[in-house]
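quick one: calcium ion bound model?
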Amino acid sequence: MSAAPRVLLIEDEAGLRLTLTDRLGSEGYSVETASDGEAGLARAESGGYDLIVLDVMLPRMNGLDVCRAVRQRGITTPILMLTARGQVVDKVVGLKLGADDYLTKPFETIELMARLEALLRRRRSSPQPGGDVYRFGEIVVDVRRAEVTRAGEPADLSAREFKLLRYFIEHRGATLSRDALLSHVWGYDDMPLTRTVDVHVAGLRQKLESNPKAPEYIVTVHGLGYKFIG
Ligand code: CA
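yep, here:
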């Protein structure tokens, strides 16, 4: 029904990258990779990932700096850090910088799978960020009850608009392409047109923005897609 969970794997060791890509793929994940910190951060910023697996020792930008930068951009995607044996400091610093879990190399892939599944479950059972109620401007979103109010009045979102808004909130600050939105909010089965995204974004703006023609919350990133900055 829903699309395969998307994993971004940021790892410079080609062998490990290949092994993990194969294994994750066979477990039903959709994997994209980056082999240095800067490329990894750029991919993370493009958004739409369900999980990020991030090595600490990376060329160009180390994993700790990548983790900090990802969180500073408001991206809440769970991060699993890979640390070398004995790098206790990295574990502590990594968790402080916003990583959700860590695994010490070398590890068994079955252990990695278990950690990733746990992170996915946690994310699904508690929508990010801020638990069940999310606020921006005059808007209050009750995620569990699927209710949205604006200045205390019901905003009357359709089910699809709500799903789209929820996805925006979960990826606050990330630039989301129309294709990414289609695959995550609509699913591949429905085969919608990319224009469908624009129509629903316009609907959300009409209901949530004080000036839908000059949106403050759901902004257009020209040539790329949309970004939620509420
Ligand atoms: Ca490394």
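The pocket of calcium ion is lined by residues 12-13, 55, 57-58 (CB under 6 Å).
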